[in-house]
Amino acid sequence: MEKLALLGGPKTVKVDPGDMFNWPIITKEMEDGVLKVLREGKMSGNDVTKEFEKEYAKWHGMKYALGHSTGTGALHGAMFGLGIGHGDEIICPSITYWASAMPVYSLGGTVIFCDIDKDTLNIDPNDIEHRITERTKAILVVHYAGMPADMDPIMEIARKHNIKVIEDVSHAHGALYKGKLTGTFGDVSAFSLMSGKSLAVGEAGIMLTNDQRVHERALLFGHYARHNEVQLEDLKPLTGLPLGGYKYRMHQLSSAVALVQIKNYSKQMKEIDKAMNYFADLLEGVLGIKVRRPEKDSGTTMGGWYSARGLYRPEELGGLSVKRFCEAVNAEGATCSPGANKALHPHPIFNEIDVYNQGKPTCIANSPEGVDVRQPVGSLPVSENIHKYTFGIPWFKHYRPNIIEEHANAIKKVAENYKELLSGDTKEEDAGGFGLTARL
User: Fold this and answer.
1) Exposure check for the chain: N or C terminus, fewer CB within 10 A?
2) How many other CB atoms are found less than 10 A from the CB of residue 194?
């Protein structure tokens, strides 16, 4: 076996990947669509956006779609659409991007974090029910890093307790759970469409629902220019100015890109899936690592494989830290990043900071007297330690076996020669960050 590149040996990855990792794939049709919007002066209009909304809703078999300036805005609108307000609680996994949780504070609510499953990295259905109180308004489910959450038990819990479900699908565009598209299970769903996502259109987001009231409340909240679309009689008197004081209109340059991207995405997603599964197959049986993906023939898929993760088991590699492991993989010429999102619940914003000058931490400012929802270190052990057991893997956009094989061999080489790395391992455990940026 060749010596590890980190220790002076030759690199495993030698072939220039070319455009293997470029994303999104820009086409002439996209460019023409953007130029048309520019030349017609429709950047701040909504006709192209409405066309995209129609196509997005049709793709998912949903009644209503509402384009937003960001995925964060779409989540904010979804929460308001459901009527989440003062004193309400949402249950959310601690391993996610901050936008899954933080918008609830501006509505007067708060967040209760729950743990994740160590193998799926998604919300653990077994850690939800005991966190439900009389103040719980919704469960916010994140289909994290491409993997659909286990929706059947989650929906069962929600129905049992008569609470709503919000799906954050920002990582899982086009992914299936048991044959059904993510974003079609809950009462409302939200998607980020920013340039790093698997369905990338620029800086934008979109909300889906089958509930007319949720849709129209979201219109009232952040889409003042479209208040004429409100049809429910009790909501019509609320039109004119945005109820939230927000302006969440989707920019039509992004809408123009989106209209083309949604036409191309199915074909692109299939090729990504073929490439990533080939990569995963090459690493099957390698000690200490596994590519996180659904079981084959389960009807559950990874969609576009946004920011896909590897599962790392240091106990199988002599206790080698994932940080040292990734350092060695990077030296081989492949891309490997330790960790995932950092757990949110220990951050000061969810414990100490008084954002709105209410005289107490924002996280408890609107809870009943004597109710303290803060969750100390040690309360969500899987979330707090998941950075030791995950790593980012290359995100292949094309099925080119020779390139994929080189990157798989780089990871395999490091795993098979882990003993050479133990002596230089500092055992540093800090990895990941509060934003999950998709890497190669």
Assistant:
1) N
2) 17
| CB neighbour burial string for 94-127, b if at least 16 within 10 angstroms, e if fewer | bbbbbbbbbbbbbbebbbbbbbbbbebbbbbbeb
Helices 322-331 and 401-416: crossing angle in degrees, nearest 10, is: 130
Q: Return the CATH number at 86.
A: 3.40.640.10
Three-class SS state of 136: strand
Residue 44 near residue 249 (C-beta atoms within 8 A): yes
Pairing of strands 89-93, 110-114: parallel
Residue 192 CA, distance from chain mean position: 8
DSSP 202: B
267 is catalytic: no
Mean pLDDT by 10 residues, the chain (440 residues): 91 96 96 97 96 98 98 98 98 97 98 98 98 98 98 98 98 98 98 96 97 98 97 98 96 97 97 98 97 96 97 97 96 95 96 97 97 97 96 97 98 97 83 60
Q: Which domain holds residue 140?
A: 28-259
Look at the chain and report how many structural domains it folds into.
1
Distances (CA, A) of 333 to 17, 59, 75, 305, 330: 11, 39, 38, 21, 5
The answer, as to whether pTM is greater than 0.90, is: yes
